[in-house]
Amino acid sequence: MREIGVAPGRGGYRQSLEAARIVFATRSALAGFFGVSDSSRLIFTHSATESLNLAVSGLLKAGDHVVSSSVEHNALLRPLHLMLGRGVEVTFVPADREGVVSEREIAGALRPNTRLVALAHCSNVTGAVQPIGEIARVAARGGALFLVDAAQSAGYFSLPTEEMGIDLLAAPGHKGLFGPPGTGLLTIARGVTLEPLLVGGTGGSASSPLQPEQLPERFESGTINTAALAGLKAGLDFVLETGLEAIRAKGKLLVEQLLQGLRACPGVTVYGPSQGERAGAVSFTAEGEDPAVLGYRLDSEYDISVRAGLHCAPDVHRTIGSYPGGTVRVSPGFFNSEADIEFFLKALRELLRR
User: Fold this and answer.
1) Do strands 184-188 and 42-45 pair parallel, antiparallel, or not at all (unpaired)?
2) CA angle at residue 188 from 182 to 191, to 5 degrees?
3) Do residues 260 and 171 both lie within one domain?
4) Quick one: which H or E segment has residue 242?
5) Residue 4 pLDDT class (50, 70, 90 cuts)
6) Would you please indicate which residues are annotated as catalytic (active-site) residues?
7) Other beta carbons within 10 Å of 35
8) Which of 63, 150, 151, 277 registers the highest number of CB atoms within 10 A of its CB?
9) Residue 191 falls inside a structural domain
10) Which of 210, 242, 274 marks a domain boundary?
11) Considering Cα of 263, then 293, then 152, then 23, what sign does the dihedral take?
């Protein structure tokens, strides 16, 4: 911001060219990270929500059918419900009580007109991890495209999109990629065409009143937030230097410590998978305690930041049995420590004894 501070692609002067180089370097690095061989097919957005809206609204038309699940975040659920009003059919496959979707259920829901299978890789409520490799194969066999909401998994799990058969992948920059808020991306596989959500100035093709066809310009109208993308590049550099294995190992250590401590607390119910793979979100309720009040007291009395309520995912709570009150969600990050988890558990035990 201080040293360049201008828009990329809006002039031939040196500062604008340097801004364009920053954007190109960020795009290229992320394309490599997500296994996208043509970096122009990685589109910058301001959030995973915008990316999901672009994928859903840009792809689907009246008469199309979509298969999704009963454990989706509103970032995907609401665009799909919007499409219901535009003549698109949607089947929401039920997950089990732990929030996991079976690829067999997905396969059973496919129809001849199924255009898209769309679901979150990991739940932001329970940490449940869906078998997206198997689901990608099921979608491909059924002739459907596969859209993955990677809001909770990008930067935590390896997601080589082309190798895994993921046609569209939406991710935010501010979570596992350690970038600033207000950044996001969408990867678009070769052969997949979308209609843009937004049209306007792109820095090129200025003589035409029509939106350009070439990527990424087709989907990046307006001024790109170069400073934020420079921050996203720095975040990705940290992930690459630290290594996904180290990040996941730290996350698993903290989550396991958290789970063991919560399960030892009388009257506490922990939601999500009882064993196997899970991401870094843990939800619980305590008997006789309002999650919102418990979250407030953890913050006000102990300076512990948790989230309470429905977490923008009401259908997840309906599935796991915590609706309408929701849960308290704890999300350990890479920069938390075992001492932080123990401090949280001690605070919770004190609150529950009062």
Assistant:
1) antiparallel
2) 160
3) no
4) helix 226-242
5) confident
6) 312
7) 16
8) 150
9) yes
10) 242
11) negative
Q: Give the side-chain half-sphere CA count within 13 A for 269.
A: 13
The residue among 241, 130, 226, 122 whose CA lies nearest residue 175 is: 122
For residues 284 and 326, what is the distance between their CA atoms, to the nearest angstrom? Answer: 9
Largest CA distance in the chain: 70
- Going across the sheet that includes 327-330, the strands are 268-271, 282-286, 327-330, 307-309
DSSP 327: E
**In this predicted model, what pLDDT tens digit does every residue of 15-55 receive, in sequence order?**
989 999 999 999 999 999 999 999 999 999 999 999 999 99
Whether this prediction's pTM lies above 0.85 is answered by yes
Pair 269, 97: CB distance under 8 Å: no
| DSSP H or E stretch at residue 16 | helix 14-33
pLDDT of residue 328: 98
Residue 7 within any structural domain of the chain: no
- Rounded to whole angstroms, the Cα distance separating 284 from 259 reads 10
What integer pLDDT is reported at residue 301 of this predicted model? 98
Query: Using CA atoms, how far apart are residues 18 and 7, in angstroms rounded to an integer?
Result: 10
Instruction: Centre a 10 Å sphere on the Cβ of residue 351 and count the other Cβ atoms it contains.
Output: 16
- At residue 216, the 3 state secondary structure works out as coil
Does 233 share its domain with 143? yes
Long-range contacts of 32-37 (CB under 8 A, 24+ apart): 33/236, 33/239, 33/240, 34/154, 34/159, 34/160, 34/161, 34/169, 34/171, 34/187, 35/159, 35/160, 35/161, 35/162, 35/163, 35/164, 36/161, 36/162, 36/187, 37/162
Range of the domain at 329: 244-353
Note the helical H segments in 303-337.
Answer: 314-320
- Residue 123 in contact with residue 313, Cβ under 8 Å? yes
- Mark whether 235 and 291 lie in a shared domain: no
Give strand pairing partners of 172: 184
Query: How do strand 168-172 and strand 184-188 relate by DSSP bridges?
Result: antiparallel
The reported pLDDT for the residue numbered 276 is 84
Q: Taken in order 272, 262, 268, 329, is the CA torsion positive or negative?
A: negative
Tell me the pLDDT band of 143, cut-offs 50, 70 and 90.
very high
